[in-house]
Amino acid sequence: MASSSSSSSASSSALKRLSNLSNHLRPTNSNALVKVSAEVSEALSSGHPVVALESTIISHGMPYPQNFETAKEVEAIVRDNGAVPATIAILDGIPCAGLNLEQLERLAQLGKSAQKTARRDIAHVVATKRNGATTVSATMFFAAMVGIPVFVTGGIGGVHRHGEHTMDISSDLTELGRTPVAVISAGVKSILDIPRTLEYLETQGVCVGAYKTNEFPAFFTETSGCKVPCRVDSPEDCARLIDANRKLNLGNGVLIAVPIPKEHSASGSLIESAIQRALTEAREKNVTGNAETPFLLARVSELTGGASLASNIALVKNNAAVGAKISVALAQLT
């Protein structure tokens, strides 16, 4: 009996060593670390179009319950245009791709108590089992991990004004340089330095396309005075661009900038004046780092009597419709 037990133990030990060796040679699939909703998982496995959505706009973009209502409306627009929405967030330390209504409302109620989570923050939020609202960089990271090729947001981060002195440059830009996800946005946030942001994206090798225009949009207004190297005039044009980028294994993302609809374009001079005042106040109060953007956007909204927030919501909804159509065209293409 003893020899039989010894043989069994040796066999078990050998199997364990083989298993460990196998894991070293073929690491465990990191996708298992992300909780993908049943709807999103089924859509991905069947080749159905899926659109990733960030969650910082829910937690830090506006107050409850307006943020919850807006999140539901954006998801509904994605569905109405033929794709499945996958809002991404970290809940109790678990990265999630695709939130149900209860989870969406929980995130909306958490508001700013949820940690604003960029790529650098992911490991800490997961390790400490906290709640994290993902920014563009973190949302891109998780979208790529689970295989979602199209991501819709309002505006990406970029080079901050006076960034040549402060070195304040959003991780969204480096993420676009190393993560193969197409980002549909209304350009970069209006508080940023657009020309320097475009220069940085060029350095990162990111293809920047403008939707139905030759000029990069300026978030709240349709024009910035900055030309783009690539113009795309339809969802099919965008899909072909994304598909080529993916097939060539360039390894970087694509940024497609969609101008805010004319009827929702706020007064450029009003917004710019509010931005300059908010920037001055931020410097006086020493608001820096990842606290700066939420402060500036909230202050600009106050100074413009809510006009900037209304325009922000309108452009996010427009981006969701365009992004869903691009996702559908890409699914048909591939």
TrEMBL record:
<dbReference type="InterPro" id="IPR022830">
    <property type="entry name" value="Indigdn_synthA-like"/>
</dbReference>
<keyword id="KW-0464">Manganese</keyword>
<dbReference type="InterPro" id="IPR007342">
    <property type="entry name" value="PsuG"/>
</dbReference>
<dbReference type="GO" id="GO:0016798">
    <property type="term" value="F:hydrolase activity, acting on glycosyl bonds"/>
</dbReference>
<comment type="subunit">
    <text>Homotrimer.</text>
</comment>
<dbReference type="GO" id="GO:0004730">
    <property type="term" value="F:pseudouridylate synthase activity"/>
</dbReference>
<keyword id="KW-0456">Lyase</keyword>
<keyword id="KW-0378">Hydrolase</keyword>
<keyword id="KW-0326">Glycosidase</keyword>
<dbReference type="Pfam" id="PF04227">
    <property type="entry name" value="Indigoidine_A"/>
</dbReference>
<keyword id="KW-0479">Metal-binding</keyword>
<dbReference type="GO" id="GO:0046872">
    <property type="term" value="F:metal ion binding"/>
</dbReference>
<dbReference type="GO" id="GO:0005737">
    <property type="term" value="C:cytoplasm"/>
</dbReference>
<protein>
    <recommendedName>
        <fullName>Pseudouridine-5'-phosphate glycosidase</fullName>
        <ecNumber>4.2.1.70</ecNumber>
    </recommendedName>
</protein>
